[in-house]
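Entry 14. Two folds queued back to back today. First construct below, sequence then C-alpha cells.
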Amino acid sequence: MTVSGVESATASKYYVGEQMCPHRLVLEHVTSRWGVLVLIQLQERPFRFSELRRAIGRVSEKMLTQTLQILERDGLVHRDAKPVIPPRVDYSLTDLGREAAEQVRALALWTEQRMGEVQKAREVYDARKGGSEQG
C-alpha cells in the first residue's frame, strides 16, 4: 500500500489481502462508533452497565454488551463482577485502555476543534458537485 506515493510499512501491515489482520481488527474495535464513546466515557471513572448506557445514550443493551466484551477481550476494559445480591458489575479501563482512550479523545477533540473547517469543505464540495450535475 502506498501513502502519498511512498510505501508505508506501518500502513501496509493493516492490509493483508482480504483477511482482517490483528492490527486492523483492534483499530476497528477502538474506533468503532460505540468503542470510541465507551473509551472516552470510562476515562472519567468506572461505570456500572446501566450508568454507562445512560451516559452514552442511544446505544442498545445488546450493542453495548458486545462492545464491552470486545474491548475486554482486547485488554482495554476491565469487568469487575461482585458476588452480591443484586449482582453488581463495574467497568473500568485497564492501563492499555487508558492509553487507547487518550488517543481516541485526542482525535475527538481535533474533530470538535476543526468542525468549522470540515463544514466549510463540505459546503464547497456540495456546491461543486451540485453545479457539475446541473451544468
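Second construct, same run, same settings:
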Amino acid sequence: MSTPEPVFTPEDNARVIRRVFDEFVNEGDFSVVDQIYAPDMVDHQPLPGAPEGTEGVKYTIAGLRQGFPDLHVTIEALSAHADHVVIHNTWRGTFTGEFLGMDPTGERIEFRGVVVWRLANGLIAERWGIGVESSMLEALGLGWLMSGGLARKGRRRGRGMDLADLAAAAGALTATEQP
C-alpha cells in the first residue's frame, strides 16, 4: 500500500511565503531557501545575472541585501488560493552598498509591489513580480527610465530593457541628458 501524497492547503502555502520574508529576506537566513523552494523553481523577475533555480533566488536576495543591508519587506496583504499566493508588499532599505553597478547614495528608499507565487507539493515552484522593478527604479530616482524614451528605445521583441540595462544606461547619461 502506497503512502498518499500530502495535501497542502492555501494556509500551508501562505505560511511558506511568510517564511520567505520573515526568515530569508528580512533576517538573511539563506538556509531557508533549500527548505521552501523547489530546486528547479523559476523566478520570472530575477536580478540580472542570476543563475536558474534556488541559486538564482539566493543571488537575487544577496544582491539586494548588498545594496540595502538593512533591507526589510513588510507584507501588507496576502491572499492564498489553491496553489497560488499573492502578496502586496513594501520594501524598505538604505542604499549604502553597490547595487547593479550603481554607487550607493546613502538614501533611504521605499517601494511597493505585488508578487505572485505558485507552490507545488509545499515548495515554491514559480515567482512573478508585478511593479516591483518599476517601483524600485522610481525609488532610486531612475523612474524616468521606465517612462522616458530610453525604455522605448530599448524594446526588443516586445520587451522593455531589463533592470541591468536601465541601470547601465542611467550611469552613462549625464544629468543634462535626462528628460
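Quick look at the second one. The longest helix spans residues 10-25. The beta strands are 37-43, 72-81, 84-94, 108-120, 123-130.
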